[in-house]
């Protein structure tokens, strides 16, 4: 039986891996059976139902950076052997069947999109594209919310066990995707403090109205909410972020190439990589959002991290901590409405890990799980090094492998690396002489989650 790769979440990365696996399967290449465990639906986070958007805002990345981009496959098996010449090119050609342009042609939208000047699609349209790809490649999606991740040791080699309320999915490799839960906020339960999901729910009902509004966060999640706030009855909007100002994301050719082509990234020092990430990806606004900010005089910026939040006198008082000249200074500020747009949490999955899984990872890392330790241990295949079974963390792979892997910038390269990884010891990926791979169903143990 083929090894199984389980994916938590059925978003863009999961769809890209499933599509690439399907095409390799057609080419007679043994690849893992890909199964996604999804609590809502394919590409749900790009729809209003996912809580991260209202679905109407524009995609920040070019839609041509689709599930096959940059169409420069270098799949390990196809690089070796007498049949290697032209096979990666064949794989790229097959992946164009799942491209953004193919979707537009199939749905009768291509000419209009060209005539309108290739506009960025809405988040909702992007989700429709991803669902179209998932349907075309017959993506295997199990409906359910993962409540616990454990290690199953009953087989010859350890496997991951993803527990939902109804079953446990056993897999030889596990990929964690998604930004986490949009329901979290710094002061849960207070109607004057909104999580990301609560913000979009209130915005859809046109229930956003306040004198002094604070938005916590300096990344694209906060930026999309600022774009929405401009349309509502608010007097002042204060953006709170740790940066000295609201930086604009670099979007020129040279910056973009860092995302599309990670060649040479590993030759940079860690300091150089962190500097590049800070300038182009983390805590920065797109040029389009910055242009909108310039035209609205209600916007101001406060530097600092929120150290404490308390409800007092019909207001929310935030205590900001700022390092100035080596000293930690704290200042208090009052707001009528606070929106926690601090964005994605790369470690959102850690509370799901059972004690056996935690022990396995901490033993492999040589210490407790932290964002820094996990980032530094991610190898070329986007999995933690020296950990069996394989745990793929593309959302944390930017520092060691390149800034495009955590986002939508090189999904084709991401799928190559993950599918080209050996999931089971002594069971590498091999190419069959001819014919299509036999379909197999991932092993699913029907047992209640513990």
Automatic annotation (TrEMBL):
What reaction(s) does this enzyme catalyze? L-lysine + NADPH + O2 = N(6)-hydroxy-L-lysine + NADP(+) + H2O
What does the record give as cofactor?
FAD
Assigned EC number? 1.14.13.59
Segments for region (Disordered): 430-450
Pathway given for this chain reads: Siderophore biosynthesis; mycobactin biosynthesis
Q: Which family does it belong to?
A: Belongs to the lysine N(6)-hydroxylase/L-ornithine N(5)-oxygenase family.
The name under which this protein is listed is L-lysine N6-monooxygenase MbtG
């Amino acid at each position: 039986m083929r090894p199984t790769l389980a994916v938590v979440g059925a978003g863009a990365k999961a769809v890209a891996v499933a599509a690439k696996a399907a095409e390799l399967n057609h080419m007679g290449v043994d690849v893992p059976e890909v199964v996604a465990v999804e609590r809502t639906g394919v590409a749900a986070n790009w729809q209003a139902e996912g809580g991260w958007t209202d679905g109407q805002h524009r995609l920040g990345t070019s839609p041509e950076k689709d599930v096959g981009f940059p169409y420069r496959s270098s799949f390990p098996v196809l690089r070796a052997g007498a049949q290697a010449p032209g096979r990666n090119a064949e794989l790229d050609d097959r992946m164009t069947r799942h491209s953004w342009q193919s979707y537009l042609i199939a749905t009768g939208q291509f000419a209009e999109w060209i005539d309108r000047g290739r506009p960025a699609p809405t988040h909702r349209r992007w989700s429709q594209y991803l669902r179209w790809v998932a349907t075309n490649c017959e993506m295997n999606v199990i409906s359910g919310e993962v409540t616990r991740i454990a290690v199953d040791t009953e087989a010859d080699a350890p496997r991951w066990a993803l527990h939902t309320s109804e079953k446990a999915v056993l897999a030889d490799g596990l990929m964690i995707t998604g930004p986490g839960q949009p329901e979290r906020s710094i002061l849960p339960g207070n109607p004057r403090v909104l999580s990301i999901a609560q913000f979009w729910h209130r915005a859809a009902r046109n229930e956003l109205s306040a004198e002094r509004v604070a938005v916590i966060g300096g990344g694209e999640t906060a930026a999309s909410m600022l774009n929405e706030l401009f349309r509502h009855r608010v007097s002042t909007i204060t953006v709170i972020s740790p940066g000295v100002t609201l930086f604009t994301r670099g979007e020129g050719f040279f910056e973009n190439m860092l995302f599309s082509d990670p060649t040479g990234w590993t030759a940079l020092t860690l300091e150089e990589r962190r500097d590049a990430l800070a300038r182009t990806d983390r805590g920065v606004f797109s040029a389009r959002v910055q242009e909108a900010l310039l035209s609205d005089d209600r916007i101001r910026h406060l530097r600092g991290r929120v150290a404490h939040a308390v409800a007092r006198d019909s207001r929310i008082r935030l205590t900001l901590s700022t390092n100035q000249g080596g000293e930690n200074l704290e200042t208090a500020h009052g707001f009528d409405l606070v929106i926690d747009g601090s964005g994605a949490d790369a470690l959102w999955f850690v509370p799901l890990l059972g004690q056996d899984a935690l022990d396995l990872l901490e033993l492999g890392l040589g210490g407790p799980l932290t964002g820094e330790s996990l980032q530094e241990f991610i190898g070329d295949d986007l999995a933690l090094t020296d950990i069996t079974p394989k745990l793929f963390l593309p959302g944390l792979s930017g520092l060691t492998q390149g800034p495009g892997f955590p986002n939508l910038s090189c999904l084709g390269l991401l799928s190559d690396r993950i599918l080209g990884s050996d999931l089971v010891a002594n069971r590498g990926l091999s190419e069959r002489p001819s014919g299509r791979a036999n379909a197999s169903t991932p092993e699913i143990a029907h047992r209640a989650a513990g």
